[in-house]
Specification:
Layout (H helix, E strand, L loop, with lengths): L12 H8 L42 E3 L5 E3 H5 L11 H9 L6 E3 L10 E4 L3 H8 L5 E3 L5 E4 L9
Parallel strand pairs: 3-4
Antiparallel strand pairs: 1-2, 1-4, 5-6
């Protein structure tokens, strides 16, 4: 056997039957990893994590536009360490500033940007996702997971 060589190209009827068999009684089959959105169960987060929480979830990737009208994925526009400052207290902002946070406002497609720190969510997916979770402000870790949200406290996690 050599690395990279095909060992078997077809699956036998017995193997197919074993793969298609229902799980044993009382055993819940695991969700397929590619169908389940990534989320954190714990870590550097503030607030509850779980199915109903925005905290610990990875942000969606809507198409967005820069103030100059360049359309691309949200990740490409955000850069690193993102958090809008509109709803932060002076103490909360000082905590995020100490970490080197930048602040970006995301606008709907029917609004124009007023500065270089604003982007437009072209398809509305990002803003819709925030609305679905009842959030207006989120703090993102560099890996694009929500670490805090206004619904559970936007201060820097301890």
């Amino acid at each position: 056997m050599e690395l990279g060589k095909v060992i078997k190209q077809e699956i036998s009827d017995e193997e197919m039957a074993a793969l298609a068999a229902p799980p044993p009684e009382g055993v819940t089959p695991p969700e397929l990893p590619l169908l389940t959105p990534p989320h954190l169960a714990a870590g550097w987060v503030r607030g509850p994590v779980g199915q109903a929480s925005i905290v610990g979830r990875m942000i969606p990737q809507p198409r967005a536009a820069s103030p100059r009208g360049v359309g691309t994925r949200l990740d490409d526009l955000l850069g690193d360490d993102v958090d809008p400052a509109d709803m932060l207290t002076a103490e909360e902002k000082a905590g995020w500033d100490a970490l080197g946070a930048c602040y970006v406002a995301v606008r709907p497609p029917d609004k124009r940007t007023l500065g270089s720190d604003e982007i437009v969510d072209l398809d509305g997916a990002g803003l819709g996702w925030l609305r679905d979770h009842g959030a207006r402000v989120v703090a993102l870790r560099p890996d694009r997971f929500v670490t805090a949200a206004d619904v559970s406290g936007i201060a820097v996690p301890a």
